[in-house]
Write a structure and sequence with these properties.
The protein is mainly α and 127 residues long. The chain has one domain. Helix content is 81%, strand content 0%. Helix 1 packs antiparallel against helix 2 (42-66). The protein is globular and about 50 Å long. The structure holds protoporphyrin IX containing FE (HEM).
Amino acid sequence: MYLILKNVHLTLVSISVAGFMLRAIWVRCTQLDQTSFRKPKGWLSRLAHAIDSLLLVSGLGLMALTHFTPFNTSWLAIKLLLLLGYIFLGALGLHYAPPQWRTFCCILALTCVTSMALLAIEKPTLW
Ligand code: HEM
């Protein structure tokens, strides 16, 4: 059960990050070529939200199985703070930041998600 859930978690991480990168590239391309600007299709955003929700559920499932919680495991506490950074910076980069800041916000969001993966793999004891 643990191995299945962990592989599901890793698969969802890959799909979620790849989807974010594709949307970030799409936002950048439409900025460069204003004439081809199109609003993102509604179903695409809904699919991205569904995948992110499943990713959260798989993470909660892993917490339940491993008994790691943000209160007893420092890397997980930092990882969840970085998750907030990823969501916030991702929303700025894809939707809300002024156009000239969007690429920068997307790069910071990707830095957060990379740090999350490294923390989960290395599992350092931080305090
Ligand atoms: C984009 C977001 C996320 C990324 C990039 C990510 C990345 C990873 C990676 C790479 C691992 C495997 C570590 C290993 O090889 O041992 C992992 C495990 C884990 N993740 Fe995530 N994760 C994300 C979201 C979440 C969320 C939202 C939660 C909790 C609500 C969570 C909880 C966990 C737990 C508890 C493990 C430990 C499993 C174990 O090693 O036994 N993750 N994560």
